[in-house]
């Protein structure tokens, strides 16, 4: 056999082969194979064949717009693009103070330093009190008619949709701040005609829904996003964190003239009181006001203890001294809204009017010179407020120099911005077929001069 000449390893290998062969023979696999072959070759029973489906190329493909496909004109899906933004371009901003350094720059550039120096210089001038209603309606309309838009007064200041704006009160230079949906804040010195007149900072991680220059110190720019309320202090070149809350924040307004305290609205329907003089970033008080969500809050210009809050279908006036953790009752309820309310603001001089924007395609003006438990609308204006998901919702805001006139965006064509009187009369339409071709959802008047700035969904500002 020659097995004696094999090594121990080869003898072991042969033994294993023999044992495996005996094992497989015991399984009788040849019988199983024959049975499977018999089943496979058995004549099938008669069945009715289904008609073949039409090929995809034979069918007429129904065209769907990029908007319905949620695809940007560039062809990039919206969800994918936003995911890339959050993960790559715009990482989460850390808590605490944040340096005032422009986007994509490790150190502040010379151009940014010049812009911040300009902001600090115009803030050193003592701000005057806003002028009250001093001219008649005819002169006011004439001033509106004299305001025009030119190409040099259009600038893309932030990268994405404008969600809030603020104008510096300086009369020497026109200085505008705009916040977009990704947390960017753009600062634009409109008086500087060069391309370097605007710089972008990213102090927030989400939409900047509310911005204001401090009424007592315009070197401070307060901005609010979902996660925090910050103060951009140009004198120290830092974005301080005033408030950070577990509840998503929606809006704020100052409770006093020195901007030391503020009322903050939250998306869960509550409101909070913040005091900058106390240590830490937690609110002093959180109160439930019975809303499903609170979109805007605005403090009465004279009686600072009152503020108006706008929610899902509710608009109510509250006394900040009576806020409780739950069950806070309103001083007055402004009735008539049938759908969600985008904003509600007191008139700037006496607070005797409140204007609201509602998704039922109506602007409403209320008389709040007295505060009964229920207030009905003084005037109603039919107005297309159906902005959809691609535009920032309209907000009607008062002209700071007037007690009876407010500005609001428009869906009408040609594209325009409208100014109404509190009686419901359309006073003026800002339009320019050559320069204005988009919807300006966010609009704000200069506090002392005949200047209007409108922001659109692509981050552009238009200055009339």
UniProtKB/TrEMBL annotation:
Entry GO MF terms: DNA binding
Transmembrane segment boundaries: none
Basic residues bias locations: 44-53
An annotated GO BP: regulation of DNA damage checkpoint
Residues in WD repeats: 334-376
Quaternary organization: Interacts with CUL4A and/or CUL4B.
Function according to Swiss-Prot or TrEMBL: Specifically binds 5-hydroxymethylcytosine (5hmC), suggesting that it acts as a specific reader of 5hmC.
Designated name of the protein: WD repeat-containing protein 76
Organism field: Jacana jacana (Wattled jacana)
Gene name tied to this protein: Wdr76
């Amino acid at each position: 056999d020659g097995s004696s000449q094999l090594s121990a390893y080869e003898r072991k290998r042969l033994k294993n082969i023999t044992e495996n062969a005996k094992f497989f023979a015991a399984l009788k696999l040849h019988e199983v194979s024959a049975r499977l072959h018999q089943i496979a070759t058995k004549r099938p029973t008669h069945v009715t064949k289904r008609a073949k489906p039409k090929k995809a190329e034979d069918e007429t493909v129904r065209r769907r717009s990029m908007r319905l496909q949620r695809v940007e004109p560039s062809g990039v899906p919206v969800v994918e693009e936003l995911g890339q933004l959050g993960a790559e371009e715009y990482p989460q901003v850390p808590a605490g103070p944040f340096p005032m350094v422009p986007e994509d720059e490790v150190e502040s550039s010379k151009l940014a330093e010049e812009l911040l120096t300009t902001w600090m210089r115009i803030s050193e001038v003592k701000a005057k009190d806003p002028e009250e209603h001093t001219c008649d309606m005819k002169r006011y309309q004439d001033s509106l008619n004299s305001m025009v838009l030119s190409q040099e007064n259009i600038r893309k200041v932030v990268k994405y949709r404008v969600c809030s704006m603020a104008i510096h009160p300086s009369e020497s230079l026109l200085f505008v701040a705009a916040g977009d949906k990704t947390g960017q804040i753009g600062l634009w010195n409109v008086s500087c005609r060069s391309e370097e007149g605007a710089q972008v900072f990213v102090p927030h991680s989400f939409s900047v829904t509310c911005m204001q220059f401090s009424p007592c110190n315009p070197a401070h720019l307060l901005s609010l996003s979902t996660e925090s309320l910050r103060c951009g202090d140009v004198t120290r070149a830092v974005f301080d964190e005033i408030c950070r809350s577990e509840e998503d924040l929606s809006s704020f307004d100052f409770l006093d003239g020195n901007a030391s305290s503020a009322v903050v609205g939250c998306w869960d329907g509550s409101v909070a009181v913040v005091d900058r003089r106390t240590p830490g970033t937690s609110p002093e008080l959180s109160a439930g006001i019975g809303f499903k969500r609170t979109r805007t809050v605005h403090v009465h210009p004279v009686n600072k203890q009152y503020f108006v809050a706008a929610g899902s279908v509710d608009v109510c006036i509250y006394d900040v001294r009576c806020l409780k953790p739950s069950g806070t009752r309103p001083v007055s309820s402004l009735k008539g809204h049938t759908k969600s309310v985008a904003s509600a603001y007191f008139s700037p001089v006496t607070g005797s009017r409140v204007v609201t924007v509602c998704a039922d395609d109506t602007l409403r003006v209320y008389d709040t010179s007295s505060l009964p438990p229920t207030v009905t609308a003084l005037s109603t204006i039919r107005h297309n407020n159906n902005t959809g998901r691609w535009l920032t919702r309209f907000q009607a805001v008062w002209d700071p120099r007037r007690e009876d006139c407010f500005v609001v965006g428009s869906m009408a064509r040609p594209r325009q911005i409208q100014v109404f009187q509190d009686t419901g009369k359309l006073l003026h339409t800002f339009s320019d077929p050559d320069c204005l071709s988009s919807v300006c959802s966010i609009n704000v008047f200069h506090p002392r001069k005949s200047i209007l700035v409108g922001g659109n969904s692509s981050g552009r500002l238009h200055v009339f």
